[in-house]
């Protein structure tokens, strides 16, 4: 067995993202250029992008979403970097974490000193029903898809199993949604950067306009329970338990650790990286945890020499609200079966003792699947550098973590970032 | 600029492939298991596959061909390797060379000691016209596809430009096809393992059966010129200038160089690896060469410390016959404009002084696009170990090369293998 250790350290010296949202007039390359420009501007001491030696692009399926394969060299051309080597990495919704890990290995291997990691996805050109079918291809096309499973169904299965085992109620999931929209309302890049009470007002006004007035709800939780406001998608997952259909891109600039000071005195050093796979849901003995997430976390913690208590900022994969609760347990922030109460009690809210998804998470910020992992790193970059504006976490944010899931955990990546 | 050098050497200690062909009853995972079993059996001193620590799968688009995304963990499960990390690498028809390079970097990075590199594609479930459309997504979907370009058209453009510049005639392309079917007839894994004169007989008998008798051709070249036998696909590319629609898989076992002796005394050491990108055809000033191939070759030769003259076995990317001629020039085997004469004069035939594509190439062996690059390595593995049977090259085959193109050279990989 190899040591869980890199031959050469790697640091992030620049990070940027496009706004996440639905952009019918824009091509993927436009969004990627937007993220690249922000990344370039974020490098404190400047960078000549001609020094970038390789590009790794995370993308789930531009093939199905846009009829564009072989996307890595086209993205590379869009930012003026041809003829540098360009490779696409794919692990469903964890594709840009796969690209990040590939970029890390590329530098640690000795082949390169400076690497661009990108994440891209443009989903909104398809109708939502086709997006759901397209995403379903990330499950087993021989067995799961013919059985009628799509991802809302998978995560609903996880949620009901969790409720059955631990006595949680749908309010647990709803409180994650409320919390993440609270945080996302402070993130100018978020696709749905509104608090739930703002969304209530939009809903009421829209119903009035249509001549079909609906009640004024007393509070968010009442709104979340109303079938007219918050459709059941796959019980207990309702509309406000699901991340949206999104377009977006993110860019990260990686350099060999020994070169980081040439670009910034405030780099994010990769101190931990873990990755694991798992079988599909129907083979698992326990539906309330992702074993790939636990394995990836263990690898990353070991490499970093830190534990859950050391993590000051954590972006976790809340494609559905239940996924955030499971993630906080798999990462060791809470014991199994205790994550849902923590969410309901505000422990994981922006000003709570253990903030989770300060960006608003995939739920509020948006989930352009191939860009989501790199987007998580952009939030950690901002928080660790004190650049997160109104949603800046308090205290010394010296260790950060990202947790990015492909499918229902058939892939999972955990990365840990520190200072040096 | 990083040194073009790996922090840790890497060797291939096992290699296997499925038969290439059209297998309507089989799933991709069946073909992958077939290749994995052959790989496992090829390890001279045996291997416990539970020691494999990570999997990199090259695949162009199971998304579009089969409605299966996130294919890496599913393939990993099929060979019993979950929960090891699994990532898909994509660079169109060079996807499994991207996986190979990722596997090399993964070991050189220090993260792993033993890695499985796979290549898979199952194309034959779609009708041929849809396959052509699916492959066209590897060109620029914003500009090339709406202009009506598909890959036969792209390579026809290259062929006409070459003919215009150097005075070549279609006989040059035809002689590549005849040559590669000659070699492929000696390869039991080849999809179309028939010599052209055998295919002539099949054609004649089939026409007789249908009550529409056709002439008996005097020789292969006459057959190749007959529009009834050899349809024009995109002039000057005819049917027998095009690689077929294929299903197939290949598996390679990589270990850190210092561990190779535990598995075999006859390993293939990675002595060179190069990768480059390029803009799409319409931006290029010279259509008769792939600049990405020249750049990738230069990187690989430099890393290996060898030159074109040292290469004893070369598998090059003949998705269309013209591509082989261009490849032999880009790799420095012949000067620009001299590759076509070499092909016509038999220089590149199996028993010629500079044999190219002893496997039969993509033309005869088949081109399951995501598996083709790893399949090339399987041929080099067999030739360098003296296990190529009737098509075994003569002399000491101590240095081998693979050249694998994505699209029309928007990506290109060159790998060089040696003994140590």
Structure report:
Two copies of one chain form a homodimer. Helices cover 36% and strands 17% of the residues of chain A. In chain A, α4 packs across α14 and α7 crosses α11. Chain A has a nine-stranded mixed sheet with strand order 3-2-4-7-1-8-11-10-9, sandwiched between helices. A two-stranded antiparallel sheet of chain A has the order 5-6. By secondary structure, chain A is of the alpha/beta class. Chain A is built from 14 helices and eleven strands. The interface between A and B is large, with 74 and 73 residues. β3 of chain A pairs antiparallel with β3 of chain B.
Averaged pLDDT of chain A, please?
96
Radius of gyration of chain A from the CA trace?
20 Å
Instruction: Give the quaternary arrangement of the chains.
Output: homodimer
The share of residues in extended strands of chain A comes to 15-25%
**Which spans of chain A have pLDDT < 50 for at least 5 consecutive residues?**
none
> So what's the overall shape of chain A?
globular
Strands of chain A, total number: 11
Task: Please summarize what this structure is.
The structure is a homodimer of 420-residue chains. Chain A is 36% helix and 17% strand.
Write a concise keyword list for the protein shown above.
homodimer; 420 residues; nine-stranded mixed β-sheet; two-stranded antiparallel ribbon
Which SSEs are present, and which pair or pack?
Two copies of one chain form a homodimer.
Chain A: E1 10-17, H1 28-42, E2 54-58, H2 62-66, H3 71-78, E3 86-90, H4 95-108, E4 114-122, H5 128-136, H6 151-166, H7 170-184, H8 196-209, H9 220-225, E5 232-234, E6 237-238, E7 247-256, E8 268-277, H10 291-304, E9 313-315, H11 321-330, H12 339-344, H13 361-365, H14 369-384, E10 399-406, E11 411-418
Parallel strand pairs in A: 2-3, 2-4, 9-10
Antiparallel strand pairs in A: 1-7, 1-8, 4-7, 5-6, 8-11, 10-11
Helix pairs in contact in A: 4-14, 7-11
């Amino acid at each position: 067995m190899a040591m869980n250790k890199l031959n050469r350290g790697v640091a992030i010296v620049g990070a940027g993202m496009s706004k996440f949202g639905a952009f019918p007039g824009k091509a993927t390359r436009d969004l990627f250029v937007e993220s690249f420009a922000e990344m370039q501007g974020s490098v404190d001491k400047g960078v000549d992008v001609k020094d970038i030696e390789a590009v790794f692009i995370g993308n789930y399926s531009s093939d199905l979403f846009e009829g564009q394969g072989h996307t890595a060299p086209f993205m590379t051309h869009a930012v003026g970097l041809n003829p540098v080597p360009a490779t696409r990495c794919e692990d469903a919704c964890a594709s840009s974490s796969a690209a990040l890990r590939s970029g890390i290995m590329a530098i640690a291997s000795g082949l390169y000193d400076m690497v661009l990691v990108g994440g891209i996805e443009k989903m909104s050109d398809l109708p939502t029903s086709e997006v759901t079918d397209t995403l379903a291809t990330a499950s087993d096309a021989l067995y799961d898809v013919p059985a009628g499973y799509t991802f809302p169904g998978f995560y609903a299965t996880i949620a009901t199993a969790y409720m059955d085992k631990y006595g949680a109620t749908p309010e647990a999931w709803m409180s994650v949604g409320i919390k993440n929209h609270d945080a996302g309302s402070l993130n100018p890049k978020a696709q749905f950067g509104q608090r739930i009470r703002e969304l209530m007002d939009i809903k009421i006004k829209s119903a009035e306009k249509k001549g079909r007035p609906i009640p004024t709800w007393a509070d968010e939780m009442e709104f979340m329970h109303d079938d007219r406001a918050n459709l059941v998608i796959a019980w207990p997952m309702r509309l406000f338990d699901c991340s949206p259909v999104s377009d977006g891109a993110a860019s990260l600039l990686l350099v060999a650790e020994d070169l980081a000071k040439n670009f910034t005195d405030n780099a994010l050093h990769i101190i931990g990286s873990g990755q694991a796979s798992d079988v599909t849901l129907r083979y698992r003995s326990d539906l309330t945890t992702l074993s790939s997430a636990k394995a990836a976390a263990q690898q990353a913690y070991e490499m970093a020499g830190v534990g859950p208590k050391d993590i000051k900022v954590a972006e976790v994969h809340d494609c559905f609200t239940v996924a955030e609760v499971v993630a906080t347990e798999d990462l060791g922030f809470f014991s199994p079966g205790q994550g849902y109460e923590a969410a309901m009690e505000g422990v994981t809210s922006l000003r709570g003792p253990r903030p989770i998804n300060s960006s608003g998470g995939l739920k509020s910020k948006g989930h352009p699947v191939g860009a989501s992992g790199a987007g998580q790193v952009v939030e950690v970059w901002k928080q660790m550098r004190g650049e997160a504006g109104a949603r800046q976490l308090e205290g010394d944010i010296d260790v950060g973590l990202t947790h990015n899931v492909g499918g229902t955990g058939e892939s999972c990546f955990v990365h840990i970032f520190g200072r040096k």
